Amino acid sequence: MQERDVDIAIIGAGSAGLSAWHAASKQSDSVVLIEGGEYGTTCARVGCMPSKLLIAAAEAAHHARDAHGFGVRVRGEIEIDGRAVMARVKRERDSFVSHVLESMQRIDAANLLHGHARFADPHTLIVGDHTRLEARNIVIATGASPSWPGFFEAAGDRLIVNDDVFDWDDLPASVAVFGPGVIGLELGQALHRLGVRLRVFGVGGALGPFQDEAVRDYADRTFNEDFYVDPDAKVEAIERDGDQVVVTFLERGSGQRLTERYDYLLAATGRRPNVDGLDLDQAGLALDDQGVPHYSRFTLQCRNADDSPGHVFIAGDANQELPLLHEANAEGRIAGDNAGRYPELRAGLRNVALAIVFTDPQMATVGPSRAELEQRYGGCDCIATGEASFEDQGRAVVMRQHRGMMRLYAEHGSGQFLGAELFGPRVEHMAHLLAWSLEQHLSVSRMLEMPFYHPVLEEGLRTALRALNASLQLGPAITERCMECGPGD
Ligand SMILES: Cc1cc2nc3c(=O)[nH]c(=O)nc-3n(C[C@H](O)[C@H](O)[C@H](O)COP(=O)(O)OP(=O)(O)OC[C@H]3O[C@@H](n4cnc5c(N)ncnc54)[C@H](O)[C@@H]3O)c2cc1C
Ligand SMILES: NC(=O)c1ccc[n+]([C@@H]2O[C@H](COP(=O)([O-])OP(=O)(O)OC[C@H]3O[C@@H](n4cnc5c(N)ncnc54)[C@H](O)[C@@H]3O)[C@@H](O)[C@H]2O)c1
Predict the structure, then answer these.
(1) Where does the pLDDT of residue 475 fall: very low under 50, low under 70, confident under 90, or very high at 90 and above?
(2) What is the DSSP letter of 282?
(3) Most buried residue among 266, 397, 403, 438 by CB atoms closer than 10 A?
């Protein structure tokens, strides 16, 4: 076995690991990046990018079907060529992956180790069966993997996860989607719009990222106009019969017991941090009940078992805090930088929480969740709420995308904006405006002083801000209808 001694070892060449490598390399020439699986990152290979490519195809189909609403007739049946859809998804996906691989060429081949890494002791990693690596500092950036309950195993090799979807050469006829979370809704709606017969089954009522019941219920009703989603499904049996999965469940609404056959069972029931195979018990770290090290979200430094600050850092989906791409990048940068400057650490800038789900209508959350805000403020009735609907919002009506609502929160007394949950057309953009306002600690009245062009969807945001301002009782009461702004409001 080869023996090596380095300053910094980074485990995982995903988005967090690559950011960590860049930051650490500014501090030291002795940085090794270890990858046990495929190069190219989860985001580009099987995550953000291929899922958005599939969604883009589904949007094209949807717009073609919806064109008649504008008086534009697309003659005959809309035909989905599943092979062509998947060929484009894979072609563009491969191009995104190739960009990642190109960017990795600046890493000296001698500093790229291929193999699964595990701890032998706090400063020693065994990589594959070929290298024993001594490292002064270590960054864990191992990402996360899909997880599912054991009873799904009855589906055998018809049990699939997101990675498998992007391997398809053609679209299947039917899929039972389990998990109406972010992945289940994005992929479920896209597959439905591409002509795949499906139902989405959940547990406990959760739907996407929403915590606000009013927004969640609205989204639930809206998605169900498009395809079947039961966030609190009564699934009685999952069986394998021939090449198919047989699901027996009580139908939402009717309560009828149905037994249906599907080509696949897609498990979208959450992701688990990849910490199991790291032998973290050898690393001398304090671990939580999921086996994830205790760490600081500002330095990404892990704590030792005796609670002293350690020489190991953890970034990206591996720490499970905010499993999103921009967070993985930011955390990787902070972790790599601190691994390089250890023991003189710097607290990194952490942005406010921002999450966007690329369904139609889109879902977005900004700032702490409603539940977190309530916990923070206790039962003091300190949170004001402002609400607006997209149903009569001018631009949304123009585009025939007038479905959705948003709820905004602010602090009574100070009038400071706190966060929001949005469900509506293209709210990805509004969510950014709100996140940027939150970063700048803007008050609701200051946000209302910003320009709003006409006619744009953001005029709907102004309506919600006005409602919020009124409920703060800090400004003039909201008018029934804004006379000076016209139908965009
Ligand atoms: C279907 C899907 C859609 C998504 N869409 C979005 C989106 O639209 N927007 C968004 O912000 N986020 C999205 N995400 C989340 C985003 O992809 C992740 O947050 C991000 O990729 C995490 O990066 P990472 O570096 O932490 O993990 P990864 O990119 O997974 O990197 C971890 C790497 O570590 C390697 N590894 C693991 N264990 C070891 C070991 N012991 N030794 C060596 N190597 C190891 C793995 O092989 C892997 O390459 C999506 C995720 C999925 C699954
Ligand atoms: N647009 C984006 O930014 C984007 C897109 C995809 C994924 N992601 C990231 O990936 C993470 C993982 O996504 P995910 O969708 O796997 O997780 P998730 O936590 O968003 O959703 C999992 C869902 O599965 C449900 N569930 C759990 N057990 C179940 C069971 N036995 N049967 C049916 N339903 C069950 C949960 O109630 C939940 O609704 C997300 O949290 C997100 O951070 C982000």
Answers:
(1) low
(2) G
(3) 266
Strand partners, 258: 249
Name the domain boundary from 287, 314, 341: 341
Q: Note whether residue 16 is domain-resident.
A: yes
**Domain endpoint, select from 289, 319, 341:** 341
Q: Do 98 and 40 belong together in one domain?
A: yes
Q: Which domain holds residue 429?
A: 354-485
- Ligand 1 centre to CA of 99 (Å) is 16
Confidence of residue 242 (pLDDT cuts 50, 70, 90): very high
Residue 365 within a domain:
yes
H-helix segments, 322-480: 325-341, 370-377, 394-398, 427-439, 444-448, 458-472
- Mind listing the pLDDT tens digit for each residue in 21-53? 999 999 999 999 999 999 999 999 999 999 999
**Tell me, what's the pLDDT at 81?**
98
Alpha-carbon span 227 to 155, nearest angstrom: 23
Site of tokens 């001698």? 110
Residues in the chain: 489
Q: Which protein residues are within 6 Å of ligand 1, measured from CB?
A: 11-17, 34-37, 41-43, 47-48, 51, 116-117, 141-143, 162, 183, 274, 277-278, 316-318, 323-326, 328
Same domain, residue pair 112 and 191: no
Is 349 part of any domain? no
* Residue 6 confidence (pLDDT) above 80: yes
Atom of ligand 2 nearest to the CA of 178: 33
The one-letter amino acid code at 188 reads G
Terminal C-alpha separation, the chain:
69
ipTM at complex level: 0.98
Query: Is residue 181 a part of any domain in this protein?
Result: yes
At residue 480, does pLDDT exceed 60? no
Q: Does any ligand 2 atom lie closer than 6 A to the CB of residue 166?
A: no
pLDDT tens, 292-343? 999 999 999 999 999 999 999 999 999 999 999 999 999 999 999 999 999 9
Instruction: State whether the beta carbon of 178 lies less than 6 angstroms from ligand 2.
Output: yes
- Give me ligand 1 centre to Cα 50, in Å: 13
